[in-house]
Amino acid sequence: QVQLVESGGGLVQPGGSLRLSCAASGSIFMIDPMGWYRQAPGKQRELVASGLMGGRTTYADSVKGRFTISRDNAKNTVYLQMNDLKPEDTAVYHCYVRNWRGGLYEDLWGQGTQVTVSS
Questions:
Q1: How many C-beta neighbours within 10 Å does residue 8 have?
Q2: What percent of the chain is predicted at pLDDT more than 90?
Q3: Which of 95, 106, 119, 107 is nearest to 5 (CA)?
Q4: Least buried of 15, 41, 84, 94, by fewest C-beta within 10 Å?
Q5: CA distances from 67 to 62, 85, 86 (A)
Q6: Which of 112, 57, 116 is nearest to 85 (CA)?
Q7: What separation in angstroms does the CA of 102 have from each of 31, 46, 62, 99, 108?
Q8: How does pLDDT run across 88-104, given as a tens digit for each residue?
């Protein structure tokens, strides 16, 4: 069984920054990709950023140039540096990983961490 522990959410003013972390532990074989989704009240969950072990990254258009995803493969940890935060970034942010074992995989989600951008 794999556990995902997220941290780093909170309340920040517009223009501020936060850094989210998600550490995976347990029955890890190979996790790829690692990423972040978010869900705002009344909206569907959306991909924020995703990072592959080889270094390739994907971002939602709305966060390009403001958010940076990175991962420490040795620690099975993924980070999301969020700069120039806007009120529309307010949401619950969920860590996501795909855990591979042989030719099979399981998709896993963290419990979520609240990010609130407000003055």
A1: 16
A2: 90
A3: 95
A4: 41
A5: 9, 9, 11
A6: 116
A7: 12, 28, 35, 10, 17
A8: 999 999 999 999 988 99
The Cα-based distances of 71 to 13, 15, 49, 97, 105 in angstroms read 26, 24, 12, 11, 19
Which tokens go with 67?
Answer: 């958010």
Dist. CA 5–CA 63, nearest whole Å: 23
**DSSP H or E segment with residue 109:** strand 104-109
Query: Two tokens at 71?
Result: 């991962």
Question: Which of 17, 29, 22 shows the shortest CA–CA distance to 3?
Answer: 22
The answer to whether 37 touches 47, Cβ cutoff 8 Å, is yes
Collapsing DSSP to helix, strand or coil, 38 comes out as: strand
Q: What is the pLDDT of residues 18-46, one digit of tens each?
A: 999 999 999 888 999 999 999 999 999 99
Residue 11: CB atoms within 10 Å? 12
